[in-house]
Amino acid sequence: MNKADLIVGLQWGDEGKGKIVDHMAQTHDMVCRFAGGHNAGHTIVVEDKTYALHLIPSGVLNPKATNVVGNGVVISPVDFIEEMSQFDDLNGRLFISDKAHLLLPYHAQIDQARERMKGDKAIGTTGKGIGPAYGDKIARVGHRVGELQDTEKLASKIVEYFEQNRAIFEVMGVDIPSKISLIDELNEYRDVLAPHITDTTLLVWKSLKDGKKILLEGAQGTMLDIDHGTYPYVTSSTTVSAGASSGLGLNHKDIGKVTGIAKAYCTRVGNGPFPSEDFGDGGDKLRDRGHEYGTTTGRPRRCGWFDAVAMRHAVRINGVDQVSLMKLDVLDGFDEVKVCVAYEVDGKEIDYVPYDMQDAKPIYKSFEGWERTEGAREFDQLPDSAKSYIEALEDMIDAKIGIISTSPQREDTIIR
Ligand code: IMP
After folding, report:
1. Cβ neighbours, 10 Å, residue 47
2. Is residue 35 lining ligand 1, measured as CB closer than 6 Å?
3. Ligand 1 close to Cβ of residue 14 (< 6 A)
4. Tens digits of per-residue pLDDT, 168-199?
5. pTM of the entire structure?
């Protein structure tokens, strides 16, 4: 039976999924997003033109590919429409699930208000409204894209929701819209989005049946997963491979090869545990060399060393067939490269991800550094110490590293 290929992030997001997904999108007939919202993001440069993608799948740059935004995604119509405006003709090649939930402007206001109220306990969200939109979905008070069919009825439901929560919204400083202005706003969304709204589950099923090559594009990373990440410092969706099934309406047998994306070191944006974070010169050098600043928010990323314990957890949870190791060249020129091989928790050494990672102290193994891997396209072109580093990682994480990226350029990729 024909199966879909899946790409997932294995760390805290920003692993460099974009480079691999963009490349694979050229050879697939359909590219599907299954979780997250416009908190995700990457930029693609094609013939001197830069495109910013947050919600639209990367297949949009392959004119032959169909792009699907599945039911597991939360969609901000304003942002989606702005993103659509970068492309000429999306009719017939961009589809949104009628079951995806709407992320409306008040969700972002609630997100930001909650973060303000948490003070130094803030999650450090992107402020886009992701948590409140998924919260409404789970609490069964959300609104689905399919409801745009009857904007008057949808506006009445939203007004009712505001009435029920008026006291809370007033404290939070959330604007309460009038029904008239809501209807106008929803009509604008409907006019642009209607030709793209459909039952995407049926569409994906049919494509699988017809033998089409399908790519499932994950967002964020395993350690930000709502269940398997560093809760509560996580995003509000299922970022791991299981999310690809529920977020599109596939069963696990529909999913074939799973490629997990990981950087050769580690980064995280926002607050929360990060045992192998380097607060010294090493971290600064990684940030500087790796241009580690958020694409969606511009925030400097926290930087540190490859965490083999968290990676083993991610490999197992996602059923990874091969790892794609990104940004190896960022480690060029370090005398010593460190890997977190275990944690110390309450004076005890452990080799698994504990219930609360906050108190986990890293236990490192050091590797000899190397001069240059940048631009290498064959494994044999790598310095011996870089080869030893990669082979040691494979042993530690129980997975094959099948792809190694040695610069942002598409061609500077080693396929083993
Ligand atoms: P939210 O998804 O905006 O609610 O943010 C929750 C946490 O996930 C914060 O730590 C964010 O920095 C992080 N996060 C969300 N999206 C991304 C992403 O695309 N890359 C990296 N971190 C992200």
Report:
1. 4
2. no
3. yes
4. 999 998 988 899 999 999 999 999 999 999 99
5. 0.96
